[in-house]
Specification:
The protein is mostly helical and about 270 residues long. It has two domains: about 70 residues; about 180 residues, f41 fragment of flagellin, N-terminal domain (Up-down Bundle). The protein is built from six helices and four strands; from the N terminus they run H-H-H-E-E-E-E-H-H-H. The strands form two sheets. A two-stranded antiparallel sheet has the order 1-2. It has a two-stranded antiparallel ribbon with strand order 3-4.
């Protein structure tokens, strides 16, 4: 029996230390909800997780950009609906002004309304969204993913001659020409609203794509990082038993030199 070196106690202390570390790890995982509580737990998994989280954040930012762009388009279309109603009424006035049974004073009333509506149509051209012009014809490149890919959102131009001409048209002196100009504006407006519809449809598709991608990224990250409570609870129970039994065995191992003393003194 060795007295100077208690090999049993040292071996038991080593196992107890390992069991204590296992217990600490299980406690950390259960309390944090993550199975990677430090880089040493899974260094490669942590690196992959950080990349997934970063991409998910970038996708969320791109989704916000798309949502703002959709709001921009919806605001444009809201204005254009009113412009469309104004142009429809202006075309009616241009036709009614060609009624030979109407007096010049009657047609002047039509002209007054026509002028008011033409002024409204042209005033819409100066409207903006958060300081950005809605109708100067500018197109915008919208970031649609984490790789900074872009979608070119076509613009709408209400500042061109097609619309400004309406301010100088007269149903009193040339109702036919006024009607032709209004018809041209209606045709242009129809194409503009169609372009806005295409913008909204495409942006919605990109938004749905990002939402699906983020769900999958979140699921992949969960596989790496989230703790399995059942597994961690089992590991905790096992480590807890090992720590308690190891503590008891260490006490027994430390008592072995006493036996040697009894042999000497006995």
């Amino acid at each position: 029996m060795v007295i100077s070196t208690n090999l049993s106690a040292e071996s038991t202390a080593q196992y107890l230390q390992q069991s204590s570390m296992m217990l600490s790890t299980s406690l950390a995982q259960l309390s944090s909800g993550s199975k990677v509580t430090s880089p040493s737990d899974d260094s490669a998994g942590l690196a992959v997780s950080m990349s997934l989280v970063a991409q998910e954040g970038e996708n969320t930012a791109a989704s916000n950009n798309i949502a703002d762009a959709l709001s921009f388009n919806q605001t444009q279309d809201g204005y254009l609906q009113q412009v469309s109603s104004a142009l429809d009424r202006m075309s009616e006035l241009a036709v009614e002004a060609q009624d030979v049974t109407k007096s010049s004073s009657d047609i002047q009333l039509y002209q007054n309304e026509f002028n008011t509506l033409a002024s409204y149509v042209n005033s819409v051209a100066s409207q903006s969204f958060n300081g950005v012009s809605l109708f100067n014809g500018s197109s915008f490149n919208i970031t649609v993913d984490s790789s900074a890919s872009t979608f070119k959102m076509s613009g709408v131009d209400l500042t061109g001659a097609t619309f400004t001409t309406l301010k100088t048209d007269s149903v009193l002196t040339s109702a036919t020409q006024a009607l032709a100009d209004v018809t041209s504006a209606i045709t242009t407006l129809a194409a503009d609203r169609g372009a806005i519809g295409t913008n909204e449809e495409t942006l919605t598709d990109y938004s749905n794509q990002l939402s699906t991608l983020n769900n999958n990224l979140s699921a992949a990250n969960s596989t790496i990082m989230d703790v399995n409570v059942a597994t961690a609870s089992t590991a905790y129970a096992q480590a807890n038993v090992l720590v308690q039994s190891g503590t008891a065995m260490l006490a027994q191992a430390n008592a072995l030199p006493d036996l040697a003393l009894k042999l000497i003194t006995g």
